[in-house]
Amino acid sequence: MKYYSIVLALLVTGSLLWADTVNFRSGKVLSAELTSAKIKISGINQDAPPELPAKTVFAVVSVKLGELRSVSVFDYVLSCYGKNFACVAVNSGKGFVYADTPVSSRKVIQLLFATDGLLTGKLPRETLTLKSKFPPANLHDAKIVFTNLDSKAPTAIADIPENGTFKKAEQK
């Protein structure tokens, strides 16, 4: 029994040393994943649906908002290779929804970006920049290393650890 307690303590300590978050304007990024899996988005206005690239690779950014903060699909873009990609949905635990009104939660939420699969999703790890649409420009940009899941579904909100999934040295 003592052996198992020691192993458990080492695992917890090791995961805390390994795990990290990335600061951004509205809080902390806990996880970032790229996937070519089909993702259902509800609440889309059929008169003005979001524009998706012909070959879409979704970027899922799991975040914990700071106190008194909120996000909507209009607040951030994901930038890579000279192109900006819009946020197309927010998941606050009930699936991805086109949230044109701000979402405020102290729990983990996910932002979904539709990127061009001709540019992203080719490497096991890729660095993209989360950019705020609020002035001043570039002040709160966050460079984030994404893990490519290929065609696997993104990690469920319940499985995202509060202390993040990034390697400490990787995001600096």
Task: Please give a structural write-up.
The chain is mostly beta strands and 172 residues long. It is 10% helix and 37% strand. The protein contains one helix and ten strands; from the N terminus they run αββββββββββ. The chain has a seven-stranded mixed barrel with strand order 2-4-8-6-5-9-10. A hairpin with a 2-residue loop joins β1 (22-24) and β2. It is globular, with a radius of gyration of 17 Å. It starts with a helix and ends in a 24-residue tail after the last strand.
Largest sheet: 7 strands, mixed, barrel
Termini separation: 39 Å
What spatial form do the alpha-carbon principal axes imply?
globular
Strand order of the largest sheet: 2-4-8-6-5-9-10
Mean pLDDT: 82
Count of runs of 4 or more consecutive helical residues: 1
The overall strand count is 10
Kindly provide the radius of gyration, computed on alpha-carbon positions and rounded to a whole number of angstroms.
17 Å
- Which secondary-structure class do the elements indicate? mainly beta
| Low-pLDDT stretches | 3-18
Architecture blueprint of SSEs:
Blueprint: H1 2-18, E1 22-24, E2 27-35, E3 41-42, E4 56-65, E5 76-80, E6 83-91, E7 96-97, E8 108-116, E9 125-132, E10 142-148
Parallel strand pairs: 2-10, 3-7
Antiparallel strand pairs: 1-2, 2-4, 4-8, 5-6, 5-9, 6-7, 6-8, 9-10
